[in-house]
Amino acid sequence: MTVRLVYNSLMKHPSDDQTISTTVFDALRRDIVFCNLKPGEKLKLEALKARYNASVSTLREVLNRLVSERLIETSGQRGFFVAGVSRQELREIADLRILLESHAMDLSFAAGDTEWEGQVVAAHHKLHRMEERMLANDLSAREEWKRYDWEFHQALISACGSASLMAVHGNVFDRYLRYQMLALTFRGAIAVEQHQQLMQAALDRDGARAKEVLRRHIDGGVEDSLAANPPVWAPDP
After folding, report:
1. What CATH number labels 16-83?
2. C-alpha closest to that of 175 among 111, 78, 82, 113
3. Tens digit of pLDDT for each residue in 5-35?
């Protein structure tokens, strides 16, 4: 199962073309977010046709959609490339995620009911089980770990009442996740404790506490990613 962070709404009876386009979009997006396609890599249509079993017209549509999400770049006649990465962009994406997620938590904490609380607790339970495996140095399921991480953070904001806010947050979360996958960092007990604190703050409806923990949580992830210093960083301007 992919960590697909923004789910597209289809018509009740989607056409075959729509279904194929969505499938290819999800697969290509996943490969970029999880760094199966590396930053700066040229995306050649013939190779993509074979990899995703898709027509050139479908691929062009998908590639342009991903350009709008800033996961792919295009430059004149040079074609399409996986978007590059830089220290500056990581910091910008992290700050934007903090801004969006903090606002969404405020709205969600105010509106959430008992059912929402149950969703938060259940999402944290699944994440914690995966974190226990990571703490035991079992790194074989990194995609499942990040899927549960996503589901927990989504649960925290799921009662915010704004589909637009969650969609924008989802795209930013994906772009932040790509940097984490590039560095493949797990901050161990510190991150585990911060997730526990976020769950408790949600149950207590303590927005101020949750936002303070979230900032430390994301800033810590940025510091770890920067310290890993993968070789694909673009120079900062």
Report:
1. 1.10.10.10
2. 82
3. 433 333 333 445 568 788 999 999 999 998 8
CATH superfamily membership of 86-234: GntR ligand-binding domain-like (1.20.120.530)
Domain locations in the chain as residue ranges? 16-83, 86-234
Are 16-83 and 86-234 in the same CATH fold?
no
pLDDT, tens digit (0-9, with 9 covering 90-100), for 122-173: 999 999 999 998 888 887 777 788 889 999 999 999 999 999 999 999 999 9
The pairing of strands 233-234 and 85-86 is parallel
The count of residues in the chain is: 237
Q: Is 150 helix (H, G, I), strand (E, B) or coil?
A: helix
**Residue 217 contacts residue 191 (beta carbons within 8 Å):** yes
Please, are residues 143 and 150 in contact by the beta-carbon 8 Å criterion?
no
pTM above 0.90, yes or no: no
